[in-house]
Amino acid sequence: MKTVRNLLYRDVLWSVFFVTIFFIALFFFFDFVDEMSRVGRNGYTMQAAALAVLLEQPGHVYELFPIAVLIGTIYSMARLAQSSEFTILRTAGLGPGRALSLLGVIGLLFAVLTFGLGEYVTPHSEQAAGFLKARFGMGLAIGRTGAWLKDRRRDPAGERSITINVRGVGKDGELTGVRIFEMDPTGREVRSLSAEHAIVPRTRTITAWTLKDVTETNWNPRTPTSEPRVDEKKLPEMSWPTTLNASVAAAALLPVQSMGAADLWRYSTHLAEQEQYTQTYRIQFWKRVLYPFACLVMVALALPFAYLHARAGGVSVKVFGGIMLGISFVLLNNVVGHLGLLHEWTPWIAASVPSVVYLLMSMSAFAWLVRYR
C-alpha cells in the first residue's frame, strides 16, 4: 500500500504544481500588461511594477488553488485511468473507500496550504503591494468618500461618540486627510479635528494616534455667564487617544478580500460593538475559515474521473470538464455570497453552501460509478 500511496501522491502533487505554475504565469502576464500603463508616472519604474504584480500573485493563487487542485487531480486520475494503471490498482485491492481516504489525506494537505496562504501570506503581500504603489503616489483605492470608522470614549461630561474619516494612505503608510468629529451624549458636535497626516502605532492594545498639522475646532455652548462661541487653533502635532489600533484601522482601509480570518473577526467584532453593519465581514470571515476545505471537496470531485472508462473521453475532455466544474464552483461561491448579503442569511450557512453542494455532487457521482462501473 505504501507503493500505491507514493504513486498517487507523487502524480497528484506534480499535476497540481504544474497547473498552479500555469495560473501564476498567466495572471502575472495579464497583471503586468495592465500595470505597464502606470509606468513612468511619479517615478514608477518597470521594476517596481513587476514587484507590485509579483506581490499580488499570492492572492490569485489563494483564490484559484482549489480549481488548480481539481484540474490537477482530474488530470492525474484520468491519465491513470487511460493507461489502465488505476484498473490494475483496483484489481490489486485498492477499494473505493481506500482510494477516497488516500486522496482525502492529500486533500487535507492542500487545505492546510490554502489556509496558510490565505491567513498569513496573502494579507501581507496585498498590503505590501498597496503600500508600494502608495509610495509612487497611486495610493490605496478606498472610495470617493474615504474610509469611515467609529469609536466611543468616556470623559467627565459623559460618553462621546466619535466618527473618523480617512481620505487615503500616504507614501510611508501614514493616514492622510484625517477628519475626526466628536459628539456629546445628546448628539451635538463638541469638537472636530482636521489633520493632514496621522501615524497609527502598530500595536493591538489601546493606543493613541499622532496627528500632524492639526486644526482643532471646539464648539462651546451658551452658559449663564458666556455666549456660545467657536474656538479654533492650529497645532503642528498632537496625540489623540483612541481604542482604534492599527489592525482595525487597516481593516477599514484595505479591501475585505485582503484581510485574514483573525483580522476579519476583530473588525466585525468592533463593528458590532459600534452597532454597525457586520454582515459583509461575517460572511467573508466564514469564507476564509471554510474555503480551505474546498480543496477536500475538489479532490473528492476528481476521484470519479478515475472510474470512467478511457472510451468515455480522452484526458483533454476530462480536464476541460474539470475547468468547467471549477468555474461553476467559483461562480456559485460568489452568487451565494451576494445572496447572503442581500437576504441576510446566517453567515456560516452562506459560506458553506457551495462546498456542501459540490461535496454531495461528488459523493453521488462516486457512489454511482462504483456501483455501476
Describe the structure.
This protein has helices spanning 2-35, 46-82, 85-91, 96-135, 246-253, 261-273, 279-290, 294-302, 315-343, 347-372, and strands spanning 147-155, 158-169, 175-183, 189-199, 207-220, 229-242. The protein is of the alpha+beta class and 373 residues long. It has two domains: 2-137 and 281-372, no CATH class; 147-253, no CATH class. A six-stranded antiparallel beta sheet has the order 1-2-3-4-5-6, with helices on one face. The two termini are 23 Å apart.
Features:
single chain; 373 residues; alpha+beta; 10 helices; 6 strands
Task: List the total number of helices.
Answer: 10
Strand order of the largest sheet: 1-2-3-4-5-6
| Helical residues, percent | 55-70%
Q: Secondary-structure element order, as H and E?
A: HHHHEEEEEEHHHHHH
Number of domains: 2
Largest sheet: 6 strands, antiparallel
- Could you give the distance between the termini? 23 Å
Residue share in β-strands:
15-25%
Which parts are unreliable, with pLDDT below 50 for 5 consecutive residues or more? none
Write the layout of secondary structure elements.
Layout: H1 2-35, H2 46-82, H3 85-91, H4 96-135, E1 147-155, E2 158-169, E3 175-183, E4 189-199, E5 207-220, E6 229-242, H5 246-253, H6 261-273, H7 279-290, H8 294-302, H9 315-343, H10 347-372
Antiparallel strand pairs: 1-2, 2-3, 3-4, 4-5, 5-6
Give a short synopsis of this structure:
This protein is α+β, with helices and mostly antiparallel strands and 373 residues long. Helices cover 58% and strands 18% of the residues. The protein folds into 2 domains: 2-137 and 281-372, no CATH class; 147-253, no CATH class.
